[in-house]
């Protein structure tokens, strides 16, 4: 155990309260400690970020070395190139590593191909102006000489003929001779994609019109919708423009490298290994928590706040194995209200209940912009500060969030209420602490005890099963492990 890690700072955004109103972070509370993830799981690979004051240069170096290995001969000096980004990348470890990858891509492509018409196209989900904020925050508008654009799923579409029919992408995503897919191996919405074709998913989400991306949300739901992204990517139209992909290799404890490839499916297999082995250990460990108070304290919408590289939405389903394709549906997979009847219970017996370990949620700092009333309805929720509560009341996606939550003036008052009401002093903080996680001392002791057993179970039992279910050749398991040490 160590002193609490400094959490990710509050960010100025139209989707959250003014950072000046975040007067105390949960990591500052009494009896909070940090657990370094590599101490819990020594086999986690070394990170290049965070790693000292010059860590961002490590990302730059890894990106350049990786990009020099891919074939760019198809890009001619007179050609235009769209570098495609997704909003979630900017919430990883403060956002700087992903921004640095996007800068490195521009520099290397320009140097190797002679093309100077290189543009950045950054897609979003429901917070339509979010990537516009990121583009300015990380200086990408200047770096790309003004050739940047944040795109929303309601922007002009383009029909894409696929083997399953006509689907719709965003026109400005594909308005160049070539596209470069810049993404990351962070598992994020494993409750959506179940680590199936994770590397391909943005083609059916960040780069797609709302009619098509809604297959995940309103039509087919997760797992069944995964083939939509694959159908778009494999279409003649997209294949005729696809140059290569470049991914941040992200573990739950930090950036472990950069992986670039002209073969997206080969890259996808490597991303699957990272997601299953490294993140799988964290999620399996979270499933060992018997009771806790969850504190939200990160500049992201409610389900997307981070602890140990895992988002809160996944912790809500930690009582199930989100990676096992044979398990029943997890409790939080898409707009979960569709899975629950008016009586507040799952509509099907095979739908697992909400993680019973979560006794209360203290909402110290989290953004709006994503339907989150489900969380406050099904878990006792305390929101810190009247202005934060009022902000949620203004959000069309969260008009009922405060109907199920109570408001208190300070974080200390919220925690006192939570301790007395739940009877537990175990606390997990979703604050994006880099390289580790901030928890209460009592929870830290439990996690330290359980970690070795979890590590052995994942390596010897769960990981081979998970990879086999996803078609990853487990005969190369030793090679994959070697490459990610």
Rg over CA atoms, rounded to whole Å, is 21 Å
Largest sheet data:
7 strands, mixed
Strands side by side in the biggest sheet? 1-17-16-10-13-14-15
Beta-strand level of the residues, as a percent range?
A: 15-25%
Classify the oligomer: single chain
Helix content: 25-40%
Whole-number total of structural domains: 2
Low-confidence residue ranges: none
End-to-end CA span: 24 Å
What is the count of β-strands? 17
Overall structural class, as computed from helix and strand content, comes to: alpha/beta
3D shape: globular
Q: What is the mean pLDDT?
A: 92
Tally of contiguous helical segments: 16
Which features characterize this protein?
single chain; about 475 residues; alpha/beta; Rossmann fold; 2 domains; 7-stranded mixed β-sheet; 6-stranded mixed β-sheet; 16 helices; 17 strands; about 35% helix; globular
